[in-house]
Description:
mainly alpha, Farnesyl Diphosphate Synthase, two-stranded antiparallel ribbon, 1% strand
Amino acid sequence: MIADFQDWARSRQACIETSLQTLLPAANIAPERLHEAMRYAVLGGGKRVRPLLAFAAGELSGASEERVTIVAAAVELIHAYSLVHDDLPCMDDDVLRRGKPTCHVEYDEATALLVGDSLQSLAFQLLAEYRLADTPQVQLEMIKRLAQAAGSRGMSGGQAIDLANVGKILSLPELEFMHIHKTGALIRAAVMLGARCGSSLNDAQLENLDRFAKHIGLAFQVVDDVLDAEATTATLGKTAGKDAEHNKPTYVSILGTSRARELAEELRRDAYQALESFDATAERLRQVTDFIIQRKF
């Protein structure tokens, strides 16, 4: 089963990489420097966890791979834009991402800002350009879902909360609230958009799937905090220990490493429980859940 998942994951990662190479503007199209920087920020790195979740949810709902590929690309473009902006000096001020210089270091701050803007715009262009659902109404709901996940009530809002609480001590519910927005919102969007590409799920099933996605979004952040505290820069491909250095509230700073690991396992059990009403078609989602919890880098 492990080998089967690894083969599946590699094939989907290769699929999304090829699609992103095609969907991103070519580096020789004007403005060349901006397009080159967009490709630099997106291609050739990352575990593509959000696309994997979209593909797994698409299998659950009987969606075509062609539809899910576009959705997965759109979500990954939003994620890449967020990393480019997060690394800027006015945000987290980092110099390393996915094992190479961050976008503003390789190019410049103005270019990095425009890269993020352009990747976000391209994501929504893709959702509007291709037929991704059985009805226009569902496709409009998908566009709305991604917009909410990326905006002030989602990822951007979570980043604002994060920046406002540097050096402060948060309660566990306050930290959870921050990461439901900063990290969890886009992960939930990846799952739900992948599922909406198909047509076999009813409202109750979609609600259970969203509950699963909420748990796995939080679990992803818990594991991320543990890795930031324990792994090396070479292993992570980004600067390790930045959270502690900047005195940021994390699951590790609040709970300690051991309890944070226990929490990740609890969230895995909660995610599994949310999938209980599904049959074997949810097995890929369970496998991606295990991949998220058990990842070492």
